[in-house]
Structures are given as structure tokens and as C-alpha cells.
Amino acid sequence: MFPTKLAFINLEANNIERKIDYSNLLSDVQKLAYHLNNHNLQNERVILIYNDTIEFIIAFLACQYVGSIPVPVYFSRGKKYLERIKNILDDTGAKFIFSNSQIFSEQNYSKYNIISTLKNKIIFTNLFGEVENFIIPDYYPSDIAFLQYTSGSTSNPKGVIVTKNSLMHNQVLIKNAFNCNEDSVIFSWLPFHHDMGLIGNILHSIFIGCTCILMSPLDFISNPKKWLQGITKYRASHSGGPNFSFDHCVDKIDNKDLVDIDLSSWKVAYNGSEPIKAETMDKFVSKFKATGFKKEAFFPCYGLAEATLLVTSKVGNSSYNTLRIDEEESYRSKIKKFRIDNNSSHLVTSSGSFIDGMKLKIVSLSNVEECKELEEGEVCIQGESVCEGYWNHNTEELYYYFNGERYLRTGDLGFVYNTELYVLGRIKETFIIRGKNFYALDVENPIGDIDEINRNGIVCFALENTDECIVVVAELKRYFVNISNFSDIIKKIERHVIETLGILPFDVILVPQLSIPRTTSGKLQRAKCRKNYLKKQLKILFSKLSYKENGLKDNAHSIALKELILIEGNKKDIKQYLINLITIKIGKSPDLNDPNIRLDEIGVDSLRAMELINTLNNDFDISLDATVIFEDNTLNAIVNAIENLIWLKQKTLGGEIIL
């Protein structure tokens, strides 16, 4: 290990790089541990709430020094987020919160009595002063490295117990699978509180001793080209994300913007955390082949928090494998392969081979016996990386026992072929139509081919008591909200469902982009979407059964209003235009009588905020800074910012101001 070698480079606003080498990282961790050592934190659960990645890393590692059990939690705003914090505090019994004083000042947590009610002790790690000749505290080992709260795609979040043994074991598996070494450069835009971002990128960089480049997830969502530009600039060798992130690049990056992209250094582009689509990877390869990206760089993989992280991965420099399959019996207990495309087959993508150190069995859903090759069942895993269960929960039902070995039930359906795992979906995301099992993905994937639909924003589920009452919820791309004939799109979706299932869907719902519930890692929450549908809480633009008035102005009015703003820059018109855009984002016209109401309080979360900024910048050819919304996201503040930028643009074009 070289002390002066860069450990992390954090990419901040205005192209500022904040760097820390391994020597200073160690020193900062030890200094913080020195301050924390007087708080008797041994075996205490500690909630970590940060919006700065490097501050989080230092606090996380300092917890290891003082023997406490860190619980990473993402930073956000709003009442729902604070309720999640309260639930995690209750579940862990944590008595301490580590954070930055500025976060609590901005967030105003006391507004919802979260802290005062639970009497937690907040420690602001940024307020500790420098220490000269400090004494490194005694090391208090804890068997538990941290608690990884799952993102809750199918149930309430639960804290996975990640031991130091399982963490180290999985780091070795990741190294063996992805061939990372001290000369590698990892580039990460993934949330640092999440298992893929934390274990696969941050902690793996420290484990290997290489350099890791960190970028905000919001920067990636708002402009995915920044990800590829970062890989180009820093010659990154390892980077990746969920399947949707590669679709995002294909959809949002124009071919004319590829001239300054060079992806020839990218050796491992891992694709995991959600269903993997060969179509997505094929399109990415086709689009970015001219930039030096190689198809062999794609590493489809399978993992889950309950296994620390990685379970299977593509091995070596070969291409990823696919199969065309169909059911051989009325239920998919056996898989039938097709060599060529036909109307009754569909493509599935391999998640790679079993990694040495992990055992995998496919277990029949009907008789709890191990399945043979090309027989479908529940994916069950065993190995040192498999975690001990959930904190404060009885988890014995999560396991099967075979020959004295305990196997974790993942809840995923799949099969094995040529020693590779093919994942078909979640057990809870299937339904039976006239005696045959179908997966939600069977219906959702074809709908993604419709031009107006966001291919990563489709959910299909069955209603209570009958599998043949199918509901489809699909996100409409922003561009088509004002110009599309909604009924025509509904008919296209119906046609796809009829071709796949042989029945007419009970209901088809069109919703704004990014309005289907997702986990923090981007997974669609089908169960929550179904619940919102039943409770009539979806943000509906149009539905087959009933039209919900969404308050949008007609397209002609919107165009006229935009032109008027560009000419006169009237604050009243800007406000109305902004309200129209917000309505598109949240699916209904908000009550904005209070000009000082925060937009995050009416449903404009960080992702929708970034989309809002991009839309405003494109519509008016201005450069509205993201910090405007994150520092003061009241209606008045944003209207004033837009008005000033339009005024400045008009003056500049008129020759009155020279920049």
C-alpha cells in the first residue's frame, strides 16, 4: 500500500475535485475515533446520515475503530423520509446518530419531533476540532460490521446483519470475479448507503487499495453523459449499475455527443441489482462501440444484500449468454429451449456462473427438493458470505437445510443451465392465467417497446382473488405527455397483453415518468404500486377505466405561454408554466397558494427536481443551477431564479451585457 496514493476523488459542483489519499484517510478516521472513544459506543447501533460521501466513509470506518455497529441511511427530505428514519431507529434501538450539523439545520428534523421523541443523541462529526499527538483508541472488535437496511422492493425494510467475516469473504469473491487490483480505477455514481455502492465500490476500493472516483447519483440521473465522461477522463476500469442505468445512457445521450467519449479503458461493466436484459446490453454495445466499448466488458451478475452482495457473475472475457425458452408443461417446472426466435419463445439472460466459495441450489416450489438442470424453482444459496438474517427479526423461515447445510431462500425464481444461473423473477410477482404461470416481466418487457412508454417504468400485477384481472401501470415519457393521444397508447398496451397472456387487461394506467414507486437502488416496487392502485393513490394521467383530471393546460396553451415568457419574461406567466411542469411530474395540479411551500413537501422529490431543472433549461435555453432547488426550493425562489436568467439572456442577446 502506498500512503500517498489517492483513495477517493469526489466530484462536486462546478467541476471541483475533492481528493483524499490513503494516509490522510487513515489519519482522519483515527482522529474521529479518538473523539468518539469517550461515548461508550461498543456494540451500539449508530445511524449514519450524510450527504457527503467522504464524510460518510470516515464516519463508517471510525465506527469500526470504536466497536460500534453503523447503520447507513440515505439523506433526503420530507415527512415520509423522516418516518423511515424513525422506523429504523425503533428497529435497531439505536441511541446515536452521526451526521453533519448543516444537514440537521437544513432539514429541520425537529419539525416532526423525530429526535426529541426518541431522545437520540446526535453527534455532529464535522464539529470536532483538530487533535495534536492524539492517541489512537483501543480497537474494540465487533462481529457485526454494519446493518444493511434493504430497500424494501417487496416488503418493509429490514436490517440485514453483515458480519466482518461475511464482508471479507464477499470482498474476495468480488476480486476473483472482476479481477480488480491496485492499478484499477473504480468509478461509482451509486448511492453510498446501498450495498452495491458501499460494498462493491467504496469498501472494495479500500480492500484492493485502488482509486475510486465518486459522483452523485443525481448527476447521473440528470445527465448520464457525465458518467461516461468520468470514465473517459479518469480511465476507469470498473464501473456499472442496475440494468436501467445502461438504458438511461442509450435513451438520453445523443450520437452527436459521443465525440469526446472514450470507453476503451472500461474492462468490467457490471450489470446487476435488477432483472438483466440482453436487449439493453446489445443496444448499449451498438451505440457505444465507436467509443471503444467492448461487448465482452459487460459482466451480468446476481447478488442480494442477504448474501452481503455478490453471488454469481460472468467469468472471463467471453460474451454474456442468453437462451430462448418456453414452458414445456402447464407450469414452468421444466424449461424448453429454442434455438431460433419464434412467437412462443422469449429471451432470458444469464446472470453468470457460481463463484468459488458460494453454493447454489434450485429448489422446487412444490416439494422442496433440489431441481435438475433446466428445471425452475427458488434460488437458494449457501456460503460464508450469506448473512445471519435480519436484526431483531426471527428469520428461521428464510432457510432450507440440505445435508446439514443451511441454504438461504432468496425468493427469486430461476433455473440453471451449463452451470450458469438464469433468474426469471420474484416468486411473489407471478400469476396464473388459465393454468399457466406467467411472470410480471413476461408482460412488461414487450410493452417497453412502445415508443411513448418508459421501458424501465412498467409494472404488471393481478388483483386480489383472481389472477385473470390484470392491471398494467406504465410511465409515459415526458415528451409525449402533451402531444399524445392517450387512448391510442392504451390500445397498444392492450394488444401486447393480449398477445402475451391471451386476455384483455382489466385496467391500464398511464402515469408520469418516475412516478411508479422505486427502491433507492432503482428497483420497481410492484407490491407498493399495487397497493397505491387499490387505495387510488397513483398519480394518473389517463386510465382505461376512468380519466382522472390532472390539471394540465392543453398543448396549444402551453406553447403560447412559453413563447410569451421568452418575449416578456412575466413572473406571473413563469409561475403558471412552472405549475404546469410540476403537475406533469406529480400527476395532479398542486395547491400552491402558499408561495413559500417547499416543493419536496408536495411530491417533487430529488429525481423529479432534476428533471424539472432539465426541462426548464431546455425550454428556455437557460442554465438554472441545481443548487437553487436544493437550497431553497420554494415556488417563489425558483420563479425568481428563472425570471433573472431569462432577463439576463434577453439583455445579453440585445447587446446590453457582454460576458
Fold and architecture overview:
With 659 residues, the chain is of the alpha/beta class. It is built from 19 helices and 28 strands. The strands form six sheets. Strands 11, 12, 13, 14, 15, 16, 17, 18, 19, 20, 21 and 22 form a twelve-stranded mixed beta sheet that branches. Strands 2-1-10-9 form a four-stranded mixed beta sheet, with helices on both faces. The longest helix has 19 residues, at 635-653. The two termini are 48 Å apart. Residues 327-332, 547-556 and 653-659 have low confidence and may be disordered.
Described by the principal axes of the CA atoms, the overall outline is globular
Overall SS class: alpha/beta
Counting DSSP E segments of at least 2 residues, the number of strands comes to 28
Major sheet summary line: 12 strands, mixed
Q: What is the rounded Rg?
A: 25 Å
Measure the end-to-end span. 48 Å
**Helix content estimate:** 25-40%
- pLDDT < 50 runs, ≥5 residues: 327-332, 547-556, 653-659
Number of helices: 19
Mean pLDDT: 83
- Beta strand %: 15-25%
